[in-house]
Amino acid sequence: MTVTSITTGLPTTPTTTTSDTPRNSLGDLGQADFLKLMMTQLQQQDPFEPMDQTAMLAQMAQFSSLAGTTEMGDTLSRISTQMETLNQTGLATQRAVAALATQVEALNAANANTASPTTPAA
């Protein structure tokens, strides 16, 4: 029995889709790009020789890892921003307390100089 390709008679020009944002390198690929590649791979596979289940599971594990790493990076970025804000607030508070302490010391010194010594009545 002879099996012919199901693509016989179909146009051979590849169809490509482009993302809305330009990419500078492979490091810029994200979750959506990975999912598009995987879906395209599934759509274009030979139905008589489908993708190996082990390879499919490995790709899905990579996708899950990518998603977790991306989420962790976003969370760490937010934490870093909050820590920087907290640090700046702490520094501003320190300066305010130091200025207030200086004013209190100056007022105490001024009060000590103007206070008249009292003599006990005899």
TrEMBL record:
Which residues lie within the region annotated Disordered?
1-28
The organism's lineage is: Bacteria, Pseudomonadati, Pseudomonadota, Alphaproteobacteria, Sphingomonadales
By what name is this protein known? Basal-body rod modification protein FlgD
| Function of the molecule | Required for flagellar hook formation. May act as a scaffolding protein.
Q: Which organism is it from?
A: Novosphingobium decolorationis
UniProt keyword annotation of Cell wall biogenesis/degradation present: no
Biased segments, Low complexity type: 1-25
Entry keywords, A to Z: Bacterial flagellum biogenesis, Cell projection, Cilium, Flagellum
| Top-level taxon of the source organism | Bacteria
DNA-binding recorded as keyword: no
- Among the Pfam families in the record, one is FlgD
Q: Name the family.
A: Belongs to the FlgD family.
